[in-house]
C-alpha cells in the first residue's frame, strides 16, 4: 500500500508536551529508527486494545 493511501484516512491532531518530554521522545525515536508519530500511534493503539493501562492520578 502506498504512503498516500494510508495517509489519506488519517486526521491531524495537536499534542502539547513538556519541552523535556518532547526532546526525550525525539531522541528515542532516533535511537529506534522510528518517528514521534509512529511511537504515539503505537501507544494509542496499545491503550485502546487494553495492552497498557494508565496510572490513576491521585
Automatic annotation (TrEMBL):
Gene Ontology terms: biological process: regulation of DNA-templated transcription
Identification of the protein by name: Ribbon-helix-helix protein CopG domain-containing protein
InterPro entries the UniProt entry points to: Arc_rbn_hlx_hlx, CopG, Ribbon_hlx_hlx
Domain spans labelled Ribbon-helix-helix protein CopG: 11-50
Source organism, top-level taxon: Bacteria
Transmembrane domains' residue ranges: none
A Pfam family of this chain: RHH_1
Amino acid at each position: 500500500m502506498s504512503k498516500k493511501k494510508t495517509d489519506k484516512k488519517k486526521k491531524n491532531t495537536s499534542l502539547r508536551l513538556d519541552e523535556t518530554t518532547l526532546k526525550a521522545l525525539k531522541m528515542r525515536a532516533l535511537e529506534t529508527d522510528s518517528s514521534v508519530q509512529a511511537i504515539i500511534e503505537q501507544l494509542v493503539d496499545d491503550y485502546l486494545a487494553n495492552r497498557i493501562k494508565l496510572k490513576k492520578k491521585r
